[in-house]
UniProtKB/TrEMBL annotation:
It comes from Microvirga aerophila. This is LysR family transcriptional regulator. It holds the Pfam family HTH_1. GO terms for molecular function: DNA-binding transcription factor activity; sequence-specific DNA binding. Keywords: DNA-binding, Transcription, Transcription regulation. Residues 16-73 form the HTH lysR-type domain. The lineage of its organism: Bacteria, Pseudomonadati, Pseudomonadota, Alphaproteobacteria, Hyphomicrobiales. It comes from the Bacteria. PROSITE patterns: HTH_LYSR. Belongs to the LysR transcriptional regulatory family. Transmembrane segments: none annotated. SUPFAM superfamilies: Periplasmic binding protein-like II, Winged helix' DNA-binding domain.
Length: 298
């Protein structure tokens, strides 16, 4: 049976060591003191000693120790909940500092959804000319990378004006329209996104379109969904610039209303001190302006 080792004679609570808290987080992450020791390059006895020191500093047991396992106590779970954001913040500090003393030769990191990144990739040679002599690192993701923390230099956000802090510079650079496309004018199958229809307007729209039709697959990534539609798997929700450019695909629905989304270019104010970032941002904005008709499905 797991037992507690809380000593009633422990002294009053003292300030815990951050190094000991990091060891505690490693024990939780790796499930054992041996695993944490291997990850940290420390011996198991050293890890055990530091955990004991942390428990003594806090005046509570953090683990219930069984013959072959460790389980967090209620206090341990509370400490974990509090310490985890501290670890994330500590990990972000070097990134933030680096963002304020950027290497002039560092790549310009551009983050966007996969569909927008796919559009940028078609014009990558043009953007490369703007970035020279540095590189552009494309980071396709639906997660909003933290510009203030230095996770990216330029972000393309869609749908609504971002409200993420006064240190960000935001400008609308255009719009992107979406519609359903298929090889047949009367599709019987649909390629749906994987998320719950209640979580996004796109998923809700496709779910409504799919009524009375077979859902042939669920694909979240736009390039893969596009290839699946080209293969004849079913109708797919695609950006108009992509669907209209393929002679094998037919636009099944009209792009209007919520199917036309605003695109915003977002930068941190400090990025204006980096000429390479500014040049790439201006090139991206110019790209959207020059291709605005295709982007909105005209």
């Amino acid at each position: 049976m797991a037992t507690s080792s809380l000593d009633p004679s422990w002294p009053a609570v003292t300030e815990p060591s951050w190094d000991d808290l990091k060891i505690f987080l490693a024990v939780v992450a790796h499930g054992s003191m041996n695993g944490a020791g291997r990850a940290l390059g420390q011996s198991q006895p050293t890890v055990a000693r530091r955990i004991r020191a942390l428990e003594e500093a806090l005046g509570v047991d953090l683990f219930e120790r069984g013959p072959n396992n460790l389980e967090l106590t209620e206090a341990g779970r509370a400490v974990l909940e509090t310490a985890s954001p501290m670890a994330e913040a500590a990990d972000a500090v070097p990134r933030i500092a680096a963002a304020y003393r950027p290497d002039p030769s560092a790549p310009v990191r551009v983050t966007a959804t996969s569909s927008v990144t796919m559009f940028l990739s078609l014009h990558a040679a043009h953007l490369h000319q703007a970035a020279q002599p540095v590189e552009i690192a494309y980071m396709p993701t639906r997660r909003k990378l933290d510009l203030a923390a230095g996770e990216a230099d330029i972000a393309l956000r869609m749908r609504k004006l971002p409200d993420e802090g006064e240190d960000l510079v935001v400008r609308k650079i255009g719009q992107i329209a979406f519609a359903m496309y298929d090889r047949s004018p009367d599709p019987t199958a649909v390629i749906a996104p994987p998320e719950d229809p209640t979580l996004s307007r796109q998923a809700a729209y496709v779910a409504e379109f799919a009524k009375g039709r077979t859902v042939s697959a669920r694909i979240g990534d736009t390039p893969i969904r596009y290839q699946a539609a080209r293969s004849g798997l079913g109708a797919a929700f695609l950006p108009c610039w992509l669907g209209d450019s393929d002679p094998d695909l037919i636009q099944i629905t009209k792009s209007q209303g919520d199917l036309i989304e605003d695109v915003f270019l977002v930068m941190h104010r400090r990025s204006r001190e980096r000429p390479h970032v500014v040049r790439v941002a201006n090139a991206v904005a110019d790209l959207f302006k020059r291709h605005q008709n295709a982007l909105v499905g005209l």
